[in-house]
Amino acid sequence: MQETRLDTARIRAARRVINPVFLDTPLYRCEALEPDLGCAVSIKLETANPVRSFKARGTELVTSLLADEGSRAAVCASAGNLGQALAWSARGRGLDVTVVASRHATAAELDRIRALGARLELVDGDHELARERAAAIALQDGIRLVEDSLDIETCEGAATIGLELAQARSSFDAVLIALGGGALATGVGHVMKALAPGVEVICVQPVGAPAMTRSWRQGRVVTTEFTDTIADGVAGRRPIPAVLDDLLLVADDAVLVREASIVAGMRLLLDRAGLVVEPSAALGIAALLEDRDRFAGRHVVTIVCGSNVDKEAYRRWVGH
Amino acid sequence: MQETRLDTARIRAARRVINPVFLDTPLYRCEALEPDLGCAVSIKLETANPVRSFKARGTELVTSLLADEGSRAAVCASAGNLGQALAWSARGRGLDVTVVASRHATAAELDRIRALGARLELVDGDHELARERAAAIALQDGIRLVEDSLDIETCEGAATIGLELAQARSSFDAVLIALGGGALATGVGHVMKALAPGVEVICVQPVGAPAMTRSWRQGRVVTTEFTDTIADGVAGRRPIPAVLDDLLLVADDAVLVREASIVAGMRLLLDRAGLVVEPSAALGIAALLEDRDRFAGRHVVTIVCGSNVDKEAYRRWVGH
Predict the structure, then answer these.
(1) What CATH number corresponds to the domain at position A166?
(2) Using CA atoms, how far apart are residues B123 and B121, in angstroms rounded to an integer?
(3) What is the pLDDT of residues B228-281, one digit of tens each?
């Protein structure tokens, strides 16, 4: 296999750097979901930690390296989860963090970012504008720009989830991974290809934010003019070429799912599994709902990657 | 210290018998809860597993011993969680299980018990009547009666939570434990007294189901005529003398909380922590809400012991 930017030995070493509160997360068969989905389903749960998403696996690595280098500050753009995770990891290491987010980001997430001591700057626009503004701040202040999915630490941090899946007592036929910038998909995908090559690596993106999926299908970067999805955590428009190159090496498929399926997935996870999840975290269940025949009789694992959700929006979506 | 029925070495050994999917559950600081509670709060989360409660730690031990002895069947009374856990553990070991439950138990739980292959018998009455009926079946069929809290395996299984708390990197000032029959409280309490004696062991029960708390306060078994609480998992009326004796040795306090506080606790866990919990699992948060002065500035850990909840009732309670 041609090589990704990721390194399995470095990913194993990352486990010694990441705070254990983010590692060895629950992985369990959830039979109560199965009558609705027609296949065996296991859940890898990344929400039961201080930042309620998997992102801290990456920010623990980033901030550890920054602290070792004697850096004092960093900046990132974030739809919410990366910002909260970077703020959490930075606080414990005495680093100053600036998070640039869209004014339309989830209010509760922005409150958490502030509460963790980060400086928050809001932009009138979408995530791509926030990325531009974060880059400008980094240049102006001479500080580290943490770029989700481009920075190898964000991918290799996420990849530690793959180690935990590969070492599980159960074996899986497929892993369903939310696809946004690509850190989670390339991270977990890399480890699966290296350590559990029989597991099909399937990325799932909303039909309303299809840039990376289209890019993967065409084998070249395809951008979109806008996004239209409730899954703000995966709503990018401009895939990063180096990340696409990695994704082309590790993904077996990339599928697009409808908004109604994402909402149905959130509702199923609530009603059958007792799990509150953000839209991005329901993408895997949405993919199962949209193609029961494909998965019939197989054992799939889906990564429930975050639970940071606006409570009012959540009530509207799930109808509670 | 006078000795409880529990044995710390046996509890350590239990970790080798219990399926790892139930062990080493998430333990994390939840700062988003803290502005409402006025103290540092960590959560020990026992819901992210195949049966959505801590009870399988005990039923794994019981069924393992039964299988070793060549037994073929067992019966228990349950408000839902024990039955589901016993059915799960028994299925994997080829044991037949009968669960006796009240007709008023949560429908989704009864469905799960059936789906796991257990025989379900419903009684027109409360948990004490179910206990009597389960005992009659055991006698008639000559099979093992699994008695929650009386059977040492149910206490020592629950006690493995205590090992995980005692070995945590954080140290706690107090642990808040839901009090029903007493397996969880005596189990965790025993380990705390043995391995982390500086941690205050505080049991929490609904004011509408106060039998064990009153018994603890008076130092002798006190029964009640009825119970009136939404926390069906802890709604016993007749404390077991041997369990009370253990509780008297390990609990530093037992407090009663109002129904409104339980509901407020469930709502806080949902809104601030993204956790769906059953009423029993919110007892610790309810105790914090009712006595902020007592806990101000301290670091408490509360065991979120289950998430098996009727979805319609849950919506009514939390107002979603």
Answers:
(1) 3.40.50.1100
(2) 7
(3) 999 999 999 999 999 999 999 999 999 999 999 999 999 999 999 999 999 999
| B120: containing domain | 56-146
Are A184 and A93 contained in the same domain?
Answer: no
In which residue ranges of chain B is pLDDT below 70? 1, 320
The span from the CA of A9 to the CA of B200, in Å, is 43
CA distance B146 to chain A (A): 24
* Interface probe, candidates B42, B45, B304, chain A, greatest A C-beta count within 10 A: B45
Q: Considering only CB atoms, which residues of chain A are within 8 Å of chain B?
A: 20-21, 24-32, 43, 45, 47-50, 52, 112, 115-116, 169, 270-271, 274-276, 307-309, 311, 315, 320
Indicate the residue among A126, A146, A166 that finishes a domain.
A146
Is A3 inside any structural domain?
no
Strand partners, A218: none
Determine the 3-state secondary structure of A121 from DSSP.
strand
Could you give the angle at the alpha carbon of A165 between the alpha carbons of A159 and A169, nearest 5°? 155
Task: Please check whether residue A284 is in contact with residue A302, taking contact to mean a CB–CB distance below 8 angstroms.
Answer: yes
B115·A31 Cβ contact <8 A: yes
